[in-house]
Amino acid sequence: MSSLTPHRTGRRAGFSASLRTEWAAFLSVRGRVFAMAASVLVTVSLGLLIAGGARSTCVTGKGEGPCPAPLVGPDGTAVSDKYYFVHQPLKGNGSLTARVSDMTGQIRLPDAVPGVRNVMKGAVPWAKAGLLVRQSLKQGTPYAAVMLTGAHGVRMQHNYIHDVAGGPHNGPQWLRLTRSGDTVTGYESDDGQAWSEVGTVELTGLPETVEIGLFATSPGALWDMAQAFAQATATFDHIDLKGANGRWRHDDVGVAMESDGKTPHHPGGVVESGDKLIVTGGGDIGPATVEGGLRADLMLIGGALGLIPVLVVAVMFVTTPGRRALIGTGPPARPGRLLAAKAAVMGAVAFVTGLVTSAVVVPAGLALLRANDNPTQPLTTATGLRVIVGYAALTAAAAVLALGLAALVKRAVIASGLAIALVIVPYFLATAGLAPWLLMITPAAGFAITQSVPTFAHVDVQQSLLGGYYPLPPWAGLAVACGYAAITLAAASVRRTA
Known about the structure:
498 residues; 22 strands
């Protein structure tokens, strides 16, 4: 007898009665409870194993040792703030105009011959050169900049996480940056005569005297799940600074020192040639998605394996009735109502299982990382709660999906295989950097809800979950998973009542 077949004719049981019956049926098989406990144990154990084994070391001017805490921007996000800056103090309002007549650089590629550096000329897509105004030279302070990039045209960026696109230029381009009180506006021009506004930003609390000038920087080139050294070199001419008339100052902001504490590591520089300034810099001004420390969602990297027992239990809850369900006491429920009751019970059990899992492993894992002197990405209370509760919601959605599949195909092995193929396999493929687009079109998209560091459009990252890449925003990803669960359950309900 199927667990979805009514036991008696006559008066139908109400939904609350069906819930009580299904709850009793779930608890009547101890293996189900043990499997849910195993789900918690697997995910927590793997998360704590990763956290306990993580060791981050950095070479600084004091030698090799623990990495410093991540640099934090105005909104609390971990940021990079390293560039070469040719600047002057600007008191009050003013403007800076210059043409970027040439932009190139150096990119280190994988060594073709072991031990022989393979360096080519060129600029990475998000190499940046342009005009910058900021509160001070202190790293992490508010700023605004208009710039030419390696492959993304002109951009207006401010405070690290904000980016506005200008024209799609990759050749010589005129740029202008104006300051009026707290308002900074960026402009672009093809000829220095006709100007188009790129963007306007408000830097609240900007002091009367700011630093304004020309900058160049470049993030590393991405290959083999890592970053290799890259620099940008830009030639500026037709430079016109209004509101200041001092000497140009040169600063390699954020440059790191070798272990001797005296030698700059990959320093930038500037060459003056007539009315031209040729500026070279490396680093980045923007969010630090990978370099900003270990992420909270890495503590849930074992969550995919932990979901497998949950999926199997959800399938068996339909295909193998509990002992109390076989007794069949009380009036029977309609098949659709019975399926809904099963889904409610299974979803609630899965949610609690996921909540216990994430509420233990995320804070415990982060504490373990910090105890071992690992830098960790800043985590706000709201984001932390979203990661913890979101994983619980994903667990519930996956369980309801598996239950619906079991009700549709009626065979435990097939339903379990389908559930694992839809939820677990795409996750592992994306973790390996393969077919990340599957996280947009399969229920595995729901893992995006655990994303603790946003994916920024103006930062290139490896398309792998290990690098923190999710193709969908957190709530959109969870909506995809819930949508699959709802559609599958609805189809199974229609089939049962037809």
